[in-house]
């Protein structure tokens, strides 16, 4: 995601999906995916069923649920 998304994004658990929020990206809603990489801003909860990577510029305003955090 390189722009702004207003609403939730969901990928099915068990899939190979990777959700990436670039430094210019902004999500206003919940994220749910097996693998999530955040370098931008998320206003909402993040559910990473397998792995969550937070970049140096990541800003999260919500709860974070993860199996592995990098």
Contiguous uncertain segments of 5+ residues: none
Write down the Rg.
10 Å
Which structural class fits the helix and strand makeup? mainly beta
Determine the strand fraction and express it as a percent band.
over 45%
Quick overview:
The protein has 70 residues and is mainly β. Helices cover 0% and strands 57% of the residues.
Structural notes for this entry:
With 70 residues, the chain is mainly beta. 0% of the residues lie in helices and 57% in strands. It is built from no helices and nine strands. It has strands spanning 4-6, 9-10, 18-21, 26-28, 31-38, 41-43, 46-54, 59-60, 64-69. The strands form two sheets. Strands 2, 3, 5, 7 and 9 form a five-stranded parallel β-sheet that branches.
Task: Draw up the topology in text.
Layout: E1 4-6, E2 9-10, E3 18-21, E4 26-28, E5 31-38, E6 41-43, E7 46-54, E8 59-60, E9 64-69
Parallel strand pairs: 1-4, 2-5, 3-5, 4-6, 5-7, 6-8, 7-9
Give me some keywords for this one:
single chain, 70 residues, 9 strands
């Amino acid at each position: 995601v390189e722009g702004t998304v207003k609403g939730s994004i969901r990928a099915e658990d068990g899939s190979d999906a990777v959700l990436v929020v670039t430094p210019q990206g902004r999500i206003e809603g919940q994220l749910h995916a097996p693998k999530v990489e955040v370098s931008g801003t998320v206003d909402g909860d993040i559910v990473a069923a397998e792995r969550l990577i937070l970049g140096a510029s990541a800003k999260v305003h919500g709860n974070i649920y993860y199996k592995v955090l990098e």
